[in-house]
Write a structure and sequence with these properties.
The protein is α/β, with parallel strands linked by helices and about 300 residues long. It has a single domain, classed as UDP-N-acetylmuramoyl-L-alanine:D-glutamate ligase (3-Layer(aba) Sandwich). About 35% of the residues lie in helices and about 25% in strands. The chain has helices at about 40-50, 65-75, 120, 125-130, 140-155, 170-175, 185-190, 200-205, 245-255, 260-275, 290-300, and strands at about 5, 10-20, 30-40, 55-60, 85, 95-100, 105-110, 135, 160, 180-185, 210-215, 220-225, 230-235, 305. Helix 1 (about 40-50) crosses helix 9 and helix 9 (about 245-255) packs antiparallel against helix 10. It is globular and about 50 Å long. Keywords: ATP-binding, Carbohydrate metabolism, Cytoplasm, Kinase, Magnesium, Metal-binding, Nucleotide-binding, Potassium, Transferase.
Length: about 300
């Protein structure tokens, strides 16, 4: 069983299903509304736990009804939450998610997520010592992420980072990351000039061999290994309802299956992402281990790995 430690954000999502995404100044009628647990750190932790990984989360929620509810939901999913702090200085993080025909637009108010400190992370040192892989994202302060990277390095653990929200990555953090798990926008924001231009992702992968996996939505995922070989993983063709949780399903699954090697772990991660888009909400459709295995067994002819 993989032992995964996740450092990241915890939100309460407000999900609006609409016929189209709203434009500036426009008021639309919606089709449905629901509150649902979210946040990239929480999503990744739940995704890993459902796949059988022993999973712990380092994060922060507010001392409010949403914070208490989210802690209990994480506990019910089997995530260890001893190092999920509670603060009185900010409300629990929240996100407004507009979902329309497989597309989504999200606004996040970080709230308590920005109260997570390096001291909170260092207090979880025993978890770093016993974990197999550490997975983090940038929805919490950089100082907390850097503390996680330093502890992972101290104990010789692979440190994987989802560079979201997209932006420039501090050089000192860049040096500590074993593998970046980025979509094309995050890739160009962190490693290029910020513009997604055709096949620019290929050049960026080649410039950082062994360091990046890029996810490309319906085009699958790709990685250039340390020897300069490009591995492209085709996506699985499935009906798409909501892509909100797909990236987190991918990241968590690749981390859980780290021991397979990146090319094979990408295939399993693409399968998990495919299952995550079958319904609305970022956590409701994250697959269990059995669901993932059954899906892979039933799609043996799809999602084949291509190595150039």
């Amino acid at each position: 069983m993989t032992r995964l430690l996740v450092v990241g954000g915890i939100n309460m999502d407000c999900v609006f299903e609409t016929a189209c995404l709203p434009r500036s100044g426009e008021t639309l009628g919606g089709q449905s509304f629901r509150r649902a647990p979210g946040g990239k750190g929480a999503d990744q932790a739940v995704a890993a736990a459902r796949q059988g990984a022993e999973t712990a989360l380092v994060g922060c929620v507010g001392n409010d009804a949403e914070g208490h509810e989210l802690r209990e939901r994480l506990r019910a999913e089997g995530v260890h939450i001893d190092h999920v702090a509670t603060t009185t200085d900010a409300a629990t993080g929240a996100a407004a998610v507009f979902a329309c025909r497989g597309e989504s637009a999200v606004t996040v108010v970080p709230g308590a997520n920005h109260q997570l400190t390096a001291a909170h992370v260092r207090a979880a040192e025993p978890l770093f010592a016993r974990s197999d892989v550490v997975l983090a994202e940038l929805g919490v302060p950089t100082a907390a992420v850097m503390a996680a990277a330093e502890l992972a390095h101290r104990f010789g653990k692979p440190f994987l980072l989802t560079p979201s929200p997209a932006g420039a990555i501090p050089p000192e953090l860049m040096q500590r990351v074993h593998l970046f798990l980025a979509n094309q926008h995050e890739l160009t924001a962190g490693f290029g000039d910020g513009h997604v231009d055709g096949d620019e992702w290929r050049a960026l992968l080649a410039r950082w061999p062994g360091r990046i996996v890029v996810t490309r939505g319906s085009e699958g995922a790709a990685h250039v290994d340390g020897q300069g070989t490009l591995h492209e993983q085709a996506a699985f063709r499935v009906p798409v309802l909501d892509t909100t949780g797909a990236g987190d399903a991918f990241a968590a699954t690749l981390a859980v299956h780290w021991s397979l090697g990146i090319p094979q772990a990408m295939r399993v991660a693409c399968a998990a992402a495919a299952l995550a888009v079958r319904g609305f909400g970022s956590q409701s459709t994250l697959p269990t281990r059995q669901e993932l295995q059954d899906f892979l067994d039933s799609t043996s002819g799809q999602g084949q790995l291509i190595t150039d």
